[in-house]
Amino acid sequence: MSIEHAQIHSPEGNLQGGEPSWRPLPPAAGGDVVVQHDPAPRTPHLRVRRDRGYTVLEFAGEIDIAAAAEIAPHLDSATAGDCPHVVIDLTGVEFFDCSGLRLLYRARSRTLDRKGRLHLVCTHPLTLRMLRLTGLSRLLPPHPTVEAALGCPEAASGMV
Predict the structure, then answer these.
(1) Where is each STAS domain found (predicted)?
(2) Which residue of 21, 39, 95, 138 has the lowest C-beta tally within 10 Å?
(3) Is residue 62 part of a domain?
(4) What's the CATH number where 96 sits?
């Protein structure tokens, strides 16, 4: 079974497809709609946050096939919709195999298909070497910090 077809469930329901990650609540005083967001992902390999209009996905620990299966639905959610703006931060990664590369390539493809922006942050020498050897560093040039990625005016993906 591929990562794209794995079904990940939580007590709140299916995290891949299905229900949206938000749901409107009854209107508050004055007619405003209150939006409630589901809690952050429950995985030791991923932290998701918003910064300056970007969804920042901070990968952590060992990114192998098991971690990739946990991360994939959240990555798909971040790259859904029109013109997604995403930063993938690999600074907390200790190990990164081909499953991680597959996640990056999938995020890049989904972002390009939706006319969005995707930036990568990576400083780990072995991960940088893997990105160079596979050619992914040309398609998704890594930035040294999240700050540098957020300050980049143009999309780093799709420039080749």
Answers:
(1) 44-153
(2) 39
(3) yes
(4) 3.30.750.24
Query: pLDDT by residue (tens digit) across 137-160?
Result: 999 999 999 999 999 765 445 443
User: Residue 43: its pLDDT value, please?
Assistant: 85
**Beta-bridge mates of residue 35:** 24
What's the pTM value of the predicted model, to 2 decimals?
0.72
- Work out the mean pLDDT of the chain and round it to a whole number: 79
Please count the other Cβ atoms lying within 10 Å of the Cβ belonging to residue 140: 24
Residue 28 lies in a domain: no
State mean pLDDT over 14-21.
39
Backbone phi, psi, residue 39, to 5°:
-65, 160
Give the total number of structural domains in the chain: 1
The residue among 57, 101, 59, 110 whose CA lies nearest residue 81 is: 110
Domain range spanning residue 138?
41-150
CB neighbours of residue 1 within 10 Å:
7
Within-domain flag for 13: no
Hey, what amino acid is at 111? T
